[in-house]
Amino acid sequence: MVRRIDRDQQRFDKIIKGKVRQQLRKYINHGEMIGRKGRETVSIPVPNIEIPHFQHGEKGSGGVGQGEGEVGQPIGRGKGDGDGPGQAGNERGQHIREVELTLEELADMLGEALELPRIEPKGEDALTSKKDRYTSIRPTGPDSLRHFKRTYKRALRRMIATNNYDPQDPFIVPTKDDERFRSWKTVTEPHTNAAVIYMMDVSGSMTDVQKEIVRTEAFWIDTWLKRQYDGIERRYIVHDAVAHEVDEDTFYRIRESGGTRISSAYRAADHIIKRDFPPSLWNIYCFQFSDGDNWGEDNSDCIENLKQNLFPICNLFCYGQVRSPYGSGDFIKELRKVEEEFGNLILSEIDDKEAIYGSIKTFLGTGK
Question: How far is CA 78 from CA 66, 75, 150, 207, in A?
Answer without folding.
Answer: 17, 8, 66, 52
